[in-house]
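dumping this here before i forget
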Amino acid sequence: MGDVISIILGLLTIVGTWKLFTKFGKKGWYALIPFYDEYVMAHCARRENEAVKLMIFKGIYELTSIVGTVLISMYGEDSEAASYALIATIILFVPYFIYSVRIFLALCDVFGRSRKWALLWVFVSALPAMVWGFSSKFQPISEEEIAAREGGSVDTADLHLAGLGDGLSIDITDRTAKNFFKSKTLLRDIHMKIQPGHMVLLLGGSGAGKTTFLNAVTGYEKANAVIQLDKGDLYKNYKDMKYDVGFVPQQDLMRGSDTVYRTIADAAALRLPKGLTSEEKKQKIDETLDLFGLGMLKSSLVDKLSGGQRKRLSIAMEFISDPKLFILDEPDSGLDGVVARSLFKELRDIANSGKIVMVITHTPDRVIDLFDDVIVLAKDSDRTGRLTYFGPIKEAYEFFGKDSMEGILLAINQKEEGGEGRAEELLQSYEALVKEREAGGEAS
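structure:
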């Protein structure tokens, strides 16, 4: 009977841990991997430096326990070998236990819960794992919130420009990726607040983390971050808010054999509220088609459209849900200058309607007059994507000492990439600029 209960509790711990991992943007099935689940748990608790140690101590402790069991079965409980194995097991259990307690205490802080929960984690892990994993009331909080509760502060607070309110608030502490037991930081310390009605250029060289940044902002690949859109937490309320964000990839995913109308109708079926009547849906579809100049082409096949028309259709598919944040990855790819500028003017009109529009383009200078702000990402000495500048276009030229976006890219790119290799210098200058801005805001 005892063995059956142990198996049930073990399964419940795995199931609860699976759900808990997903709250941190981790793969839930990591909970099935012995020892590695300890490593992932340490990362969830933001104790990355102790993750490998915990996993190693757990592995050695378990191995010693197995060896001890084998020796007892071979030589008996009173044998000298069994006694040594027992002593070794006890000795190795101590550091494993200490590290486990430290991780569970840190996990309590990350969830903003009483540290008394750590006792349950140590002795009856199935209960907290199920509660923390499945309850919507148990959600990880940011380091800033933890510091505020403790009356302290965090280093990244000096760079914190975002606040609650309308618009897009981005606070990315870091975004890491794992390759077996190695952890690579892809992004770090990215904080900003984008106002409604702004059209923003996302600029950065190859490998600077532009795609990783967009995936973190949209919630597609969650970072250690807080992303708020009009006071709503995108990570915590992703299911309810996912259609508040429209994302248009570089390559469209439309079926060439469908008509324009059918393509938009399928998008509407996925993105519009379920309570709308058929007539209301049809009206919304017609309005969206007219908005992007596709009304006269509703019966045309997608394969028969020009490059500019296909791009407008792919944008319309995302715009049908009336998103508050609209992100586009190279919408002008493959388009000539005249068609591209016409498309960007439509994006400018969308921003003017109160939306936030964020765009990646490899030819920014031909349409830069249509943008309000620019986000510049660059690789630091550790090849981690960092925020090198965020703010108005005119001030960006002054900050970098350049008169074009191409010139700014040249400044931040590494020398081996044909650039000037000034990323580290500019990162320090931007930190000083942020502090100057914040001091000016406090004074006013």
